[in-house]
Write a structure and sequence with these properties.
The protein has 434 residues and is α/β, with parallel strands linked by helices. The chain folds into two domains: 196 residues, Rossmann fold (3-Layer(aba) Sandwich), CATH 3.40.50; 195 residues, Nucleotidyltransferase, domain 5 (2-Layer Sandwich).
Length: 434
């Protein structure tokens, strides 16, 4: 007996701009799209179709936004609407999840609670507004959960400077195992030209270029040093700098625990500050960075003056008998612990210093990007900027700049220099870095 299968029609008509994405064959995808392009609707429907057509009875699919409240506000109504013909049970409001024909489950998550993602596996994940998430959510939590079942993933969002999402997208464009798509409002044809002209006028040029033209070189909202970096660029103070062997080099540090350690290298002439080199690395013991100092000294022919360290340098590592300071001292590196200070006080010190700073555009490209994008944290519940910094890849480099600004320029007039701690402990060790 022939059984007639009745097709199920979803309430979704894909925009032509997203048809290449729906037809892709690659395991990974990265989509940078302007506001109102329809990226959330398109990727959510793609995921619904994938969950049903893969027909995995124990299939698990995750759609992740930066905050759970945001996931409920932005995507939950879409998920219930488009998945309605395929549901085998009522949507679970408390879990923001649905059960689909054939047995798979599709659930919304917030990256603000990474522990809710942990455990088990995923067959496919969409990370919406990935640039607003901590990159560790992908690298440490989600990616391992795709391994054993050869799961796939899509990254979508708009651009907020040359952040982790932009860097991922740039790398993906060079890799054939990735599908990539860049939709600018001026090229997509989704919004009429008259509307775009009105938006440009109402939003202002910088915000329009960021949100609608996907421009990674625009200073992002809430960036601490946006004005300073804009002035530096306009005045030509971000350019190749010749390193002088006659001027000693001072360093500012941020010491990583589970993340990167960053070092900025400075030459100071009168009131002028020259950021001539930058180094950042993770997963290395502290003595690795002593070797970096030595290598750079011989590469550029300079001599060192002070090294400015944050309080983290006093800590003992769990698997080491000596503190970081003692380990560096054994390598002949003597530094100075910068007094504890309020982060905003330090940020103001950096702002003052940047007004008379020149930065090498080649050796310091990563720290230039970090300074442009280092920003306040946004509180979506009260719709206001927090005074605190947003935790992402920019913190390490910008904290090393702040250490130097507070340590060398010492903007607090009430802080006696005697508060500073030298790492030598009167040992008489002579540093090769001198």
């Amino acid at each position: 007996m022939n059984v007639r299968v009745k097709p199920i029609i979803l309430d979704y008509a894909p925009r032509p701009q997203f048809l290449p994405y729906h037809r892709r064959t690659q395991r990974w995808a990265a989509l940078i799209c302007h506001r109102r392009a329809g990226k959330t609707v398109s990727t959510l429907n793609d995921q619904i179709k994938l969950a049903v057509t893969q027909a995995l009875p124990d299939g698990r699919y995750a759609f992740v936004l930066p905050y759970r409240a945001q996931a409920k506000e932005v995507a939950w109504k879409y998920l219930k609407r488009f998945a309605a013909p395929l549901l085998t049970a009522p949507p679970r409001e408390s879990e923001l999840s649905v059960d689909l024909i054939g047995g798979p489950t599709l659930r919304l998550y917030g990256a603000d609670n990474p522990d809710s993602l942990r455990g088990g596996y995923f067959d496919n994940v969409v990370l919406d507004e990935f640039g607003d998430m901590l990159p560790d959510v992908w690298f440490e939590v989600v990616r391992p959960m795709l391994a054993d079942r050869h799961g796939s993933a899509t990254f979508i969002g708009t651009i907020k400077g040359a952040n982790a999402f932009w860097k991922l997208f740039e790398a993906a464009q060079r890799d054939p195992v990735w599908f990539t798509m860049l939709l600018k409002a001026s090229e997509s044809g989704i919004l009429p030209a008259s509307e775009l002209a009105d938006m440009r006028r109402d939003m202002g040029e910088d915000r329009y270029r960021q949100e609608m033209e996907c421009d990674p070189n625009v200073a992002i909202k809430g960036a601490f040093y946006a004005d300073e970096m804009r002035v530096m660029e306009a005045e030509g103070r971000i350019r190749p700098i010749t390193i002088s062997r006659d001027i000693p080099v001072r360093t500012g540090w941020d010491i990583g625990r589970t993340d990167s350690t960053a070092i900025t290298f400075w030459q100071c002439v009168g009131h002028e500050r020259r950021l001539v080199d930058y180094y950042e690395m993770s997963g290395k013991i502290i003595t690795h960075y002593a070797d970096v100092l030595y290598e750079k000294k011989h590469e550029h022919g300079w001599k060192y003056a002070e090294h400015y360290w944050p309080h983290d340098m006093l800590a003992h590592m769990l698997d080491a008998e000596k503190s970081r300071i003692e380990m560096m001292r054994d390598k002949g590196v003597i530094g100075e612990i910068v007094p504890a200070h309020d982060v905003l006080e330090g940020i103001n010190a950096v702002r003052k210093m940047l007004a008379r700073t020149w930065i090498d555009s080649t050796r310091c490209k990563r720290i230039i990007d970090a300074l442009r994008q280092y920003r306040r944290e946004w509180d979506p519940r009260i719709q206001m900027w927090k005074p605190s910094e947003f935790k992402d890849w920019t913190n390490n480099g910008c904290d090393s700049v702040r250490t130097f600004a507070v340590g060398f320029d010492d903007p607090a007039p009430t802080r006696p220099r005697s508060e500073r701690r030298r790492s030598s402990d009167n040992s008489g060790v002579t540093s090769w870095a001198a």
